[in-house]
Amino acid sequence: MSTTSAGDACAIPPTTDAASCALPAAVEPGRTWTGPSQPQRFGLLRRARSIAIVGASGNPSRASYFVATYLLSSTAYDVYLVNPRETEILGQPVYPSLSALPVQPDIVDVFRRHDDLPGVAQEAIDSGAKTLWLQLGSWNEEAAAIAEAAGLSVVMDRCIKIEHARFHGGLHLAGFDTGVISSRRQLLAR
């Protein structure tokens, strides 16, 4: 599986300027779909128990690797990695497809090329997922329409790691200057 190079902008080592992974601006020209609000995205993350990462990579410079590392180490989610070319990443088994997962994932987080997204949306539906989440840099209104028509929630052009960390006070762990000065250490919880 190929990963989207636009999504790789989210892979920010702690020493890198976080501005390159800024949150998306308001709707861009040509975009007609409107995604869930901040409270709705927070609700999706709060209700989820499992996340499948489609397009997971064993390459530490890929955004999917960075996101998988964060989700496995800083959250209580059951994380399932999907890539037909890998067998193990970060000590976790890797499944060849969503249909091979031992569970129905709550969220399918996608790191795939633009043209692959409608097919992945259908796979997410077939797997019983509740949410299709397209990573930062991924926008495909056809995929969103397919998923929403089947009753899935859809999030596009947002990094699930950034969203989770933002809602749970953990952006500073990834090198983001949150502007908050506190002597209290924040706990990362779901």
From TrEMBL:
Span of domain CoA-binding: 44-138
A matching Pfam family: CoA_binding_2
Protein name per its UniProtKB record: CoA-binding protein
Gene3D superfamilies reported in the protein's UniProt record: NAD(P)-binding Rossmann-like Domain
Lineage, broadest ranks: Bacteria, Bacillati, Actinomycetota, Actinomycetes, Micrococcales
Organism: Microbacterium paraoxydans
